[in-house]
Amino acid sequence: MSKESNTGIPTDSEVILGILNNSESVLKRLYVAYFPMVLQLIINNNGDGDDAKDVYQEAIIIVYNKIKTGDFELSSKLKTYIYSICRRLWLKRLSQINRYGGDIKDFQEFLTVDDETEKNNERDIQFNKMGDALKLLGEPCKTIIEDFYINNRSMKEICEEFGYTNADNAKTQKYKCLQRLKKLFFQQNKGE
Amino acid sequence: MSDNQLLEVIEKYLNGEMTKDERARFEILRNENAEINGKVSEHKHFTGLIKQYGERLELERRLNAIHDEIDVQTLEDELMIHPSFVVRMWRNHHSKISVAASIAIFAVLCTLFFTGYLNTREINYVKLSKEVHQIKNTTDQLNNKVNNLNPNGKGKNSSGKFRGTGFAISSNGFIVTNYHVIEGNDTVFVQNSSGESFKAKVVYSEPQTDIAILEIKDPSFKTFGTIPYAFKKVESDIGENVFTVGYPRDAMVLGPGFLTANTGFNGDTTQYQVSTPVDFGNSGGPLLDNRGNLIGIINAKESHVEGAAFAVKSGYLLKAIQDIPDSLKNGLNTNSKNTLASLNRVQQIKKLQNYVFMIKVNQ
């Protein structure tokens, strides 16, 4: 964690630059800056601290991904944008659990942000399936896949860790694992 | 080529690990073979998804780490909109409050029940005629003494069980009292302030307004003289200074007070409520205002309430007088001239006492 920047609420352009540069401190300052606003929204509208955490993190992830993919255009203040997404997500969740009483206490201005939350929702479903498939895959396949495809480790390192006598065996094992993972993942898709 | 080998080649191709030649050959193969082409893009998409999934997990881990440093509980306490003290009190303690309230209501009801408050209020309404049970003998003795002391011997020994008050309404011997005082009797005795008793007949009675009119039928009676008070035709107002005189005991007693309501017991519109102290025996007594106008006839009181007496309004008395059959009227003329108006209370009562009578009933 770098200590180069000051604390306090980061400016909107600071946030964009910081996320593009993978700055841990900017992410932290962004997170700390707007969490109280969202917590206030949730706990005064039938939610608790954990609900606030879920909703807020989902919103931060949406913002993060939008910045990373480069299609983030700031048409309003970042604060308003985050508030609007959280508000939209919370309303959706409230109506899912039948706790929505028909009105919501607002603390900020807000925009309509249906598209972003919908897109994120689809991606979330894919990720959940991937997570489930990886769980079903079991060891050592899960670790091999994670090490190779997520953590970018080389086959040589993986070989040593798992004690395979040669890289070919390890490769064969990896491809078997990948085929099984695909099968599990797409089976879930069909099951839907 | 087995699946695994194909995958290995695809991976090599995607990762850019091929030599120029290999790459060119594979691209030709890919263009020719749609199946291999499909596998390439599928593999690319799938491994991309795994990668993104990993990144997401990593991001979530980072966010959770940041989140763990925030004191959520303190923030929650700060940001929660606290409802008012009463609302919080109710939310936290509503069961206790409900139980306490139920117990309180139950206790009040029990108390009311056992003290007899919930029984019909009618028993509180006491007709003021006096049944002289215990003091009958004393009264008799007193009467005897009075009569014996009377040198002319005019008075008759007229002991009575029921007693009330009455007052003259015309100079030729008509007297009004309450119906409940004389109920069931044709003949009664009236006794004036100097102890003289006269026999009187009931000529007219109206149970619904509790009015009875008597006429003295006694050879020793001549005339009352001019009646000093006039009968008020219109209703009097709340707050008016009023008084009554009557015979709750063997001497005439003054009862001063105020007119406190325009209706009587349970909203009875034929009556006034007054604050004059009255007792058994005051029934039938005149109720006069400050200027000596007769405004009503005392007839009852509320037994559990201090200073709540009731009086029939004078308008109903006038109506009763009109309703007497002509054959019985016998020259009944009500007085309309008030000679008490300019006198003070002492003088008014001095004048009045000759026109207020004790009514005795032998029953």
- Major beta-sheet overview of chain A: none
According to CATH, what is the topology of the largest domain in chain A? Rna Polymerase Sigma Factor, Chain: A
CATH topology term of the largest domain in chain B: Thrombin, subunit H
Counting structural domains of chain A, the number is 2
Explained architecture:
The complex is a heterodimer of chains A (192) and B (363). Chain A has 192 residues and is an all-alpha fold. Chain A contains eight helices and no strands. The radius of gyration of chain A is 21 Å and the shape is elongated. The relative contact order of chain A is 0.08. In chain B, strand 12 (286-289) and strand 13 form a beta hairpin. By secondary structure, chain B is an alpha+beta fold. A six-stranded antiparallel β-barrel of chain B has the order 9-10-11-14-13-12. Chains A and B meet through helix 2, helix 3, helix 5, helix 6 and helix 8 of A and helix 1, helix 3 and helix 4 of B.
